Amino acid sequence: MKLYYYKAEKGNFGDDLNPWLWNRLIPGVLNNDESEALCRFQWKLTSQQT
């Protein structure tokens, strides 16, 4: 399974942890096989006060 995640040009601590973290949570599953994918998505929620 191939891991897809955001890679910032200048780096981003949280996103850069993805390969390290997922290899510890699901060892042996990530092998760059593109026929299966694990995608991590994050939405930033903001509140607007009127």
Biggest sheet, spatial arrangement of strands: 1-2
Number of beta-strand segments: 2
Overall structural class, as computed from helix and strand content, comes to alpha+beta
Number of domains: 1
Uncertain runs are none
Estimated share of beta-strand residues: 5-15%
Multimeric state = single chain
Give the distance, in angstroms, between the N- and C-terminal Cα atoms. 45 Å
Structure annotation, total helices = 2
Task: State the shape.
Answer: globular
Radius of gyration: 14 Å
Order of helices and strands: EHHE
Give the overall average pLDDT: 80
Largest sheet: 2 strands, parallel
| Helix residue percentage | 10-25%
Describe the structure.
With 50 residues, the protein is of the alpha+beta class. The chain has one domain. The chain has two helices and two strands, in the order E-H-H-E. The chain has a two-stranded parallel sheet with strand order 1-2. The mean pLDDT is 80.
